[in-house]
Amino acid sequence: MKKLLLFAISTMSFLITGCTSDIAKEIPAKLPVEKSAEVQVSETDEKLYTPGIKVSEWMLPRQNSRMRSGSVTHVMLHFTNNAMRNPEDPYNLDDVYALFEEYEVSAHYMIGRDGEVYHLVPESRVAFHAGKGIDLNYQHYHNSFNEYSIGIELLAIGTKEEMFPIVPEEIYERIEPADIGYTEAQYTALNELLVDILKRHPSIKNDREHIVGHHEYAPVRKVDPGTLFDWSKIGF
Fold it and tell me: What pTM value is reported for the model?
């Protein structure tokens, strides 16, 4: 009975296991005064945010993001999947995209199992991927990390312990072992994407203080990218 109750609560709360379970259209925390005005991005400036690598444009609806204020200083990594609803086919792209739309969450990029990179939100806009949390090195980012970061989702699934209670054990057992964890193609694509992003945003330093996992910002709520993610594969 207890397991069924947990299952029902977790299913209602959220089904994209790597994204924020907070209300997507979150009201941002008050920003420092000097950064409170929205940055108006001109058509010329917009080109500065254009990816320099091959990506598939698959933009989310406008309401899944908002204008950015201030500069980008961080990249946050996540995993996402549709394992709860379809454990036999957890990476169906249409299903995952539909979840983003349904819950009005977002990330700037998503990396598929074969290393394909999908561009979901322009870097000039704020994506809703971090939710509530705090970075001890940047405490003034409290509950407003979205404002200063680029979010990258990887299609992946964590360990049984990490996925519970969002994905109960009986459903997790139906997932193919090859669908758990990350692929070499994803690490290759992620490295290329990070190099590309850092070229456009010199304020993002190539270190673990500025390239972080969701779990570091919201450890009580989030586990992604999880223990199966090999940070050494991206140079850390």
Answer: 0.84
